[in-house]
Design brief:
This protein is about 80% helix and about 0% strand. The protein has about 220 residues and is mainly α.
């Protein structure tokens, strides 16, 4: 065996394995740190799903008369962030069905209702996915402070993107539903640009300034 082979086998590789094991141990410790005993109880999960659903609906009705200012989307996203994919999707579809079907301005037409149910279900799912990705990052410290540049930038981008998606595709569904053609999409969308901008800015700011604080608050209660 050459000197180089000896050094690789007995000096370099053990150090590399030790470093890998240390990283794996850190990942396990972080996973354990963010596991909640409360969320392992089905009865408590049911109570939280009901609470998030009711809160989403109440906030939806409270802000219904303020054009395109809402916390409905943020609350559903938060439910997925805290409860995970399945329960976040349950909150999304149940709260959107009740709010959109019993809307104070009238029930949504069937095609638009179907889009809204799908969209808010995906918002709950996205909240869970965002949590899975962020919890592995060193800057995600809900037990200390979440008002850090990386966190608020990520939340702001998510809030802006999902709201833009909603505005574009809900307008598209409206155009097809009421006029039977996609040709009316652009005129309708251009007409509603002030409301679209208000909605996007409102949700982006909500995800930046409200969401991190709510996550910290819920974490302190559950973890």
């Amino acid at each position: 065996m050459s000197r180089k082979e000896y050094e690789e086998d007995f000096l370099v590789k053990p150090l590399q394995n030790k470093s890998i094991n240390r990283n794996n141990l850190n990942d396990v410790n972080k996973e354990e740190e963010y596991n909640s005993v409360w969320l392992e109880r089905n009865s408590f999960r049911i109570a939280l799903v009901s609470t998030f659903t009711a809160l989403s609906i109440v906030l939806g009705y409270l802000l219904a008369y303020i054009p395109n200012i809402e916390l409905f989307t943020l609350t559903i996203f938060l439910s997925g962030f805290i409860l995970g994919k399945r329960d976040g999707m349950i909150v999304g579809i149940s709260s959107s069905f009740i709010f959109c079907f019993f809307n104070p301005f009238g029930a949504s037409p069937l095609p638009l209702l179907a889009f809204q149910l799908s969209y808010y279900t995906l918002v709950g799912l996205l909240g869970a996915v965002a949590h899975q990705l962020l919890r592995k990052k060193t800057f995600f410290t809900p037990d200390e402070d979440l008002y850090k540049i990386p966190v608020i930038v990520i939340f702001g981008i998510i809030g802006g993107m999902i709201t833009t998606f909603f505005q574009i595709f809900s307008t598209l569904v409206d155009a097809i539903s009421f006029y039977g053609t996609i040709d009316r999409f652009l005129p309708i969308f251009i007409t509603g640009i002030p409301f679209t901008i208000t909605h996007i800015i409102g949700n982006t700011l909500g995800f930046i300034f409200i969401l991190p604080g709510l996550i910290q608050l819920v974490y302190k209660m559950l973890y």
